[in-house]
Amino acid sequence: MARSPDELAELRAICPEASEMSEAGVTYYFLPKLKVPGAGELDGLLRAQQAASDGYTTRLFLSKPVEGKGQNWTEQRILDRTWHTWSYNNVPVTDRLSQILVNHLRALR
């Protein structure tokens, strides 16, 4: 699903240095110094599309797991870096990028 420049601008209102990246046909949004509830600032990587490899509609990957939050944390190697994510599914791919991000962050409160 192609994203509009407005959506990236909205994402940058939350994380000013947000940028788009891709690997193996999958688009990611790199979110440096993302404010994560209970963890301070971490780097984030938002996947706003479903990937055949895991069955999740969207995913938020973080530079480290958030202690005591989320369930079933796993590691994945994306864009030549190790990322951590938890089991949290069914965030609609049709939502705007900022809504997808906020929904994932809400799950860590």
Compact overview of the structure:
This protein has 109 residues and is of the alpha+beta class.
Structure commentary:
With 109 residues, this protein is of the alpha+beta class. The chain has one domain (5-106). It has 2 helices and 6 strands. The longest helix is centred in the N-terminal third of the chain and has 10 residues, at 5-14. It starts with a helix and ends with a helix. The relative contact order is 0.21.
Which terms summarize this structure?
35% strand; 4-stranded antiparallel beta sheet; alpha+beta; 6 strands; 109 residues; two-stranded antiparallel ribbon
List low-confidence stretches: none
Number of individual domains? 1
Report Rg. 13 Å
Q: Helical residue percent?
A: 10-25%
Strand order of the largest sheet: 1-2-3-4
The profile of the biggest β sheet is:
4 strands, antiparallel
Mean pLDDT: 94
Strand content: 25-35%
User: What is the ordering of alpha helices and beta strands?
Assistant: HEEEEEEH
Mind sketching the topology for me?
Layout (H helix, E strand, L loop, with lengths): L4 H10 L4 E5 L2 E11 L3 E8 L11 E4 L11 E5 L2 E5 L11 H10 L3
Antiparallel strand pairs: 1-2, 2-3, 3-4, 5-6
